[in-house]
């Protein structure tokens, strides 16, 4: 067996199951979960219809192997979206690749770019999406966790990474909008990271799967957009990961794309060809249709905005929480143990939330997720409101 497998950490939901073992949730109340960050708004009908229609289309039937690089139609649709969304000029032939959801791509990317024969560090935010850590470990690298700072809207404290660590860094994961914090990285932070990149030569993987769910007027700045604004039109050393899962409510379709540095993507395509991760032609067709429509994304964002506008003020009365820049999470301070909060809340009010310490690692003597919980407002507004009301009662009843 690959000995590196034993270094993988249990997934947060596994730890949650252990935390909840032996608890009987209050049977008088129906269960509500704010635990899993999985979209629950319905999939738009036109995307389902595109999937069905693709079965009958010449060139997208099931009787042939699809190209790993994707169809020109899908790549063009992705490039056109990047143009509309960020004003970017991207070459669809060399700077875009379809992926089967951003998760597999974030993982596979580390396997492509890490050279384990040299000292290898992968820097990632803390708290973070656990795939970054597993990807780093299985690529033979050491993760380094840079804490997010609650005093600065949860911006990651990149200055806390020692220069000697940057010198060994081969890959940096950034996540903007962040999971679980919802924080969007401003241009100045990108400027700082690009300067570090120029000094040390690492590659940046920019995870942007929540980019279309935002609460400010300004849409979140994208990594490639930041690069273009700072005169890096070739996107050197930078690859952005984006996804239809949250944008279009199709997590089950497994569809996203990566875009950026053409040389890096050429190597990524080589890796993916061996890995066998071509996207089904049916999904490729429906994905091109989904990327080409924006109205359903506007409607989806509006649903989240209305929901958050109702739920956040309730919780603000009793928890240290506020509307995030973006994403569908509330990242709330609970003034005490996050695990005890989650356990007691389930027992007394049958509401599941995720302890923040499970989404972060202890580093530099503290766990930046401790004392916080993540609440995914993915269910419909009525259910999220009921959960919030129960949480208010719960907090008010605590000693
Ligand atoms: C931060 C982050 N990145 C990537 C993903 C992966 O999403 P998908 O594989 O559906 O594109 C998720 C899913 O929850 C996520 O939270």
Structural features, described:
The chain is α/β, with parallel strands linked by helices. Helix content is 40%, strand content 15%. The chain has helices at residues 12-20, 45-54, 72-86, 102-113, 131-138, 163-168, 187-200, 223-229, 244-247, 262-275, 281-291, 295-316, 338-349, 381-397, and strands at residues 32-33, 96-99, 121-126, 142-149, 155-156, 169-175, 203-207, 238-243, 256-260, 329-333, 351-352, 354-355, 372-376. Strand 3 (121-126), helix 5 (131-138) and strand 4 form a beta-alpha-beta unit. The chain is globular, with a radius of gyration of 21 Å. The termini are far apart. It binds pyridoxal-5'-phosphate (PLP).
Summarize this entry quickly:
The protein has 14 helices and 13 strands. The protein has helices at about 10-20, 45-55, 70-85, 100-115, 130-140, 165-170, 185-200, 225-230, 245, 260-275, 280-290, 295-315, 340-350, 380-395, and strands at about 30-35, 95-100, 120-125, 140-150, 155, 170-175, 205, 240-245, 255-260, 330-335, 350, 355, 370-375. It has about 400 residues and is an alpha/beta fold.
